[in-house]
Amino acid sequence: MERFSNKPPVADRASTWDGSADELPPAEREDAPSALAISERRARALFEGIEDSVFVHDMDGKILDANPAASRRLGYTREELLTLNTRDIDDPEFAAGYEDRLIEQLARGRLHCEGRHRTKDGRLIPVDINTSTMVLEDKPVVLAVIRDIAERKALEKAHAEMAEAQAVHARVIEAKNAELGQSEARYRMLTEASLDAVVVADSDAHITLFNPAAERTFGYSASEILGQSLARLMPDDQPGDPMLQLQEALKARDPNVVDHTLTLRGKRKCGEVFPLEISISAVETAEGVQFLGSIRDQTERQKMAAMLAQSEKLASIGLLSAGVAHEINNPLAFIGNNLAVLERDLGGIRGLLEAYESADATIQSTMPALHEKILAIREELDWDYVRANLGRMLSRTREGVGRVASIVNTMRGLARTAPPVMEPVSLEHVVSASLELVQGRMRRHGIEVHRINPTESLPPIACVSTQISQVIINLLVNAVQAVEESTRGGGRAITVLLRRETGFQVLEIADTGDGIPPEVLPHLFDPFYTTKPVGEGTGLGLSISHGIITGHGGKIEVEARSGQGACFRIWLPERTAF
Amino acid sequence: MTPSSKHCLLVVDDEADVCDSVNDLLRREFRVLKATSAQEGFRLMQEEEVHIIMTDQRMPRITGVELLATVKARNPNAIRMLFTGYADLESIIAAINEGHVYQFLKKPWQPEDLLSAVRMAAKEYDRLIATAEEGDRLRSELASLQHRLSVLEEEVRLLSGLLPK
Q1: What is the 3-state secondary structure of A358-418?
Q2: Residue in B24, B107, B110 nearest the CB of A329
Q3: DSSP secondary structure string, A307-353?
Q4: Cβ separation of B107 and A331 shorter than 8 Å?
Q5: Closest CA to A127 of A51, A63, A44
Q6: What is the rounded distance in angstroms from the CA atom of residue B77 to the CA atom of residue B10?
Q7: How far apart are CA A550 and CA A545, in angstroms?
Q8: Distance from A273 to chain B by nearest Cα, in Å?
Q9: Which of A50, A221, A306, A495 sits most deeply, having the most CB atoms within 10 A of its CB?
Q10: For residue B114, what are the domain limits?
Q11: Residue A193, pLDDT score
Q12: Which are the contacts of A31, defined by CB distance < 8 A and separation ≥ 6?
């Protein structure tokens, strides 16, 4: 401190400390003694009273001076400090950077850095150091003002820890939120957006949840069904008390009911009873046990299954009948042939007999016994009738064989061995051409034809036009017959409608006939099923039509109610290439 | 046609009833041979001069098309006919295109159709034979003409040698 106090203020002025020395007016420096003393006292008070540690050290780091704050903080006496180097009080890691700091210090005249000091008893204290270079007794020295930043560091650390804790917390909250969101989404998915109708009921079978799919399936809105009994959703025609049985089964957790998939029947608001598949599970909640039923409407599936079964049945019948047809053809060949031979030879036999008969009189006179015998045989045979009838009988038999042959030939059409060639064809044209062929018959019977075509022109579809035409003619002829035979008054008309449905072209042929009785409907497409008198229809038309349409990747359906006419619908896929 | 000049027709079908039936229908106009197997058919063709052969397509061990292909090689003059109750048109179309089959009939046939088909086959056979005979006659005539030509040429050569130079 003495050494510092000995230093004239000029040294300060020469330093780069700051510009304050320059602000001193030259006049003040003129009356040196008193002003110097005042300045020194002021500097000393400053040096000793400042809370920051102040060091002066030379370029090698040797400490030249230190203030009381420095002694206090480091635990060394001033005398001890004056024997030390900055390296002794710098923590080794910080001391290692001394050279680099000195270079920067010399280059810029000042330096600001953070480091760590080690006290006499070995504690480390974080410090903030501000240094500047100055000249003291013609030697460059470093003045270092050091602030203890332990508190600030602690505060910073606390801040950082807090920030991190907050971040962690935020993440946890976020994760929790996401989880909640997910489970909510799951819940929504399970109930709201589920394709399955979800119905939840409490242990008294009162409905507590009814999702949108359930609304669609049953036709009730959630608001009108919530709180109601499950019985509203079940058909009334079941024996016993199914509600009671269900309630008991649920209460008892009957393993055949709970956690099990059942096939039952449901009832829609409109009264329609439909097949459904239901999986029931029991869920324990705060309000007691709830039974969750996941319900799938099976109407479409049963329809599909029936259609599939129908197609498979027809396909196998087709294959079978084609095989049978081939087997029948062999005997048919020689039966027909033999009949022709019989017919031909019968002619010869009749000629022969006539020649014999011309000798009747001679036989009667010369061989009366033989003549008697001949007469007896003739009587027995009823020869006059046989002679007149044989030719007719044979020709009818040949006709019958011809019919068998044509049926067998049609049967072969049920199973096509090679796929026919498909070509892009306008369905509208095929319809026109087919109508043309039936037009005459319709006119004769005074049947009107209403054609409804789509406003847009339809693209051609890939099909075997002769086959499609065969189907259309078949349906038109059936329609004509239905109208002809109709006993109910009303228009005598056939409506032919062509329209487009996504991916398909649809042809509807509707008649004003008596419709189709419900008992006939399931057999409509069965081969050999016919309602026409024997010999008038083979009963193959619709089953062949069915085969042709499914062969084209389409489908054929009939909508018919007794007394309301029938409407056949054909869907053909809109593909242009195969 | 006199009985002795009847065309000879061989019918091959593993079902004897078919063979008999064909025989009954055709025997007045044709001499009909019956075989219920391809082997029997080949044997009969070696023993007799067969003008027309008609066979079923589906038989055990050998198809009608295969049988007719062999017949074509061994007995090219015989008119070949095929009938079938099956819709296996692929092989039949191929056989027709390859020339193994002259006529194809579907079982069951109309007896009138069979008759006219066989009559046509007989005519075709006669035409083929007539053409072949005409060819033979022309060939022999040509040969004799060539012979005469070479004789004449020889004479010309001899005569020209005698002429004064």
Answers
A1: CCHHHHHHHCHHHHHHHHHHHHHHCHHHHHHHHHHHHHHHHHHHHHHHHHHHHHHCCCCCC
A2: B107
A3: HHHHHHHHHHHHHHHHHHHHHHHHHHHHHHHHHHHHHHHHHHHHHHH
A4: no
A5: A51
A6: 14
A7: 9
A8: 49
A9: A495
A10: 3-130
A11: 59
A12: none
Write down the pLDDT at residue A419: 55
Handedness of CA B13, B15, B16, B17 (dihedral sign): negative
SS3 of residue A134 by DSSP: strand
Closest Cα of chain B to A347: distance in Å?
A: 14
How many inter-chain contacts (A to B, CB under 8 Å) are there? 61
Q: From the list A329, A338, A340, which residue is nearest B85 (CB)?
A: A329
pLDDT score for B88: 63
Neighbours of A419 (CB within 10 A): 9
Looking at domain A197-297, its CATH superfamily turns out to be PAS domain (3.30.450.20)
CA A227 to chain centroid? 33
What's the burial of A25, exposed, middle or buried (CB within 10 Å: 0-12/13-18/19+)?
Answer: exposed
| Terminal-to-terminal C-alpha distance of chain A | 107
Residue type at A18 in one-letter notation = D
pTM for this structure?
A: 0.45
Shortest Cα–Cα distance, B135 to chain A (Å): 39
What are the tokens at A12? 């300060």
DSSP H helices, A142-211, are 150-191
Cβ-defined contact of A333 to B21 (cutoff 8 Å): yes
- Partner residues linked to A496 by β-bridges: A451, A509
Q: Per residue in A134-149, is it b (16+ CB within 10 Å) or e — as a string?
A: bebeeeebbbbbbbbb
Structure tokens at A153: 């560091």
Tell me the per-residue pLDDT of B39-96, one tens digit each, with 9 for 90 and over.
999 999 999 999 999 999 888 888 888 899 899 888 888 999 998 876 666 777 777 7
Walk across the sheet containing A260-267 and list its strands. A207-210, A197-202, A288-297, A273-285, A260-267
Nearest to B25 among A341, A405, A412 (CB): A341
CATH assignment, A423-573: 3.30.565.10
Contact call for residues B43 and B33 (beta carbons, < 8 A)? no
Which residues in chain A land under pLDDT 50? Answer: 1-29, 417-418, 578
CATH of domain A2-148: 3.30.450.20
> Does the residue B144 lie in any domain?
no
- Domains: count for chain B: 1
Provide, as residue numbers in chain B, all residues whose Cβ is less than 8 Å from the Cβ of A341: 21, 24-25, 111
Domain holding B47: CATH number?
A: 3.40.50.2300
Is residue A210 a contact partner of residue A292, using CB atoms and an 8 Å limit?
no
pLDDT in tens, B101-145: 888 888 888 888 999 999 999 999 999 999 989 999 999 999 999
- Our CA-based measurement puts residue A419 at a distance from the nearest CA of chain B, in whole angstroms, of 12
Min Cα–Cα distance to chain B from A574, Å: 30
Q: Quick one: pLDDT at residue A314? A: 67
Interface contact flag, A417 B87, Cβ < 8 Å? yes
DSSP state of A458: P
Positions of CATH 3.30.450.20 in chain A: 2-148, 197-297
A326/B87 touch (CB, cutoff 8 Å), yes or no: yes
Interatomic CA distance for residues A572 and A472, integer angstroms = 12
Q: Is A322 on the interface with B (CB under 8 A)?
A: yes
Do residues B107 and B88 lie in contact, with contact meaning Cβ atoms separated by under 8 Å?
no
Q: Which chain A residue has the Cα nearest residue B90?
A: A418
Spatial contact of A248 and A203, defined as CB atoms under 8 Å apart = no
Structure tokens at A218: 């049953």
